[in-house]
Amino acid sequence: MERKETYIAGGIVALLLIGGFAWWTYSDDTASPASTETPTGESTDNTDVKTADTPAKRAAAAYTVTRAKEGTAYVATVTLTATGFSPRIVEIERGDSVRFINKSGKSMRVTSDTFEGAPIYAGFNQVKSVGMNGTYSLSFSEAGVWGYHNLGTETDIGIVYVK
């Protein structure tokens, strides 16, 4: 019975995250896009999260298009910098991958956020820490909103939104 309650609670948390993100992103404000995608799939960031003056603009500034086709699959790239993950929120399709690149000068070990001691997304756990220029990639097979963090820090956080 405890396992069923854990799944229900996890579902509620996921719904709250999705609802909050949708509310924050789709307010009545008309925010200019935070980024533009080049024909090669590269992204350029056009806004600064700290200077955005409305929730919609802050959400747009936090979201950056990073999904690019590599061979037959799509990969989103997230970089760990000295100030945290960039972008903090990525949106991908089921079956796509996210590649985390460490450019922070500290160790990186990406892991799923937890609920009552259990990972929210099982399998979202980098087994071994990597240093500067190290990478970690993971394909996501389940739709949802998956929070993650750099193990050992409370400020290096992010979200993978899988449609």
Description:
It contains 2 helices and 13 strands. It is α+β, with helices and mostly antiparallel strands and 163 residues long. Strands 3, 4, 5, 7 and 11 form a 5-stranded mixed β-sheet that branches. It has a 4-stranded mixed β-sheet with strand order 6-13-12-8, covered by helices on one side. The chain has a two-stranded antiparallel sheet with strand order 1-2. β3 (67-70) and β4 (73-81) form a beta hairpin. α1 (2-25) packs across α2 (55-62). The longest helix is centred in the first third of the chain and has 24 residues, at 2-25. It is globular, with a radius of gyration of 16 Å. The two termini are 29 Å apart. Mean pLDDT is 76; it is low at 22-49.
Task: List the keywords.
single chain; 163 residues; alpha+beta; five-stranded mixed β-sheet; four-stranded mixed β-sheet; 2 helices; 20% helix; 35% strand
List the helices and strands and how they pair.
Elements: H1 2-25, E1 35-37, E2 43-45, H2 55-62, E3 67-70, E4 73-81, E5 84-86, E6 89-92, E7 97-102, E8 110-112, E9 114-115, E10 118-119, E11 135-139, E12 144-150, E13 157-162
Parallel strand pairs: 4-7, 6-13
Antiparallel strand pairs: 1-2, 3-4, 4-5, 7-11, 8-12, 9-10, 12-13
